[in-house]
Design a protein that fits this description.
Layout (H helix, E strand, L loop, with lengths): L6 H18 L21 H12 L1
Length: 58
């Protein structure tokens, strides 16, 4: 399976590991663990994406 399709599995495992670590040492994470929710598609340079699409459409 390509890496870009493994985001849900990777984040789920990361959350599991962080929760386990927090249960063993809660003082290390007084404000809770980081957010491991899937956020969907991410675009690094959205302004460049739109420029490319505009150029290709012309």
């Amino acid at each position: 399976m390509p890496l870009h399709m493994q985001d849900k599995a990777i984040l789920s495992k990361r959350k599991e590991v962080l929760e386990e670590a927090r249960s063993r040492n809660p003082k290390r994470w007084p404000n809770g663990i980081r957010n491991c929710d899937v956020i969907g598609e991410v675009v690094l340079n959205p302004e460049k994406e739109s420029e490319t699409e505009t150029r290709n459409a012309a």
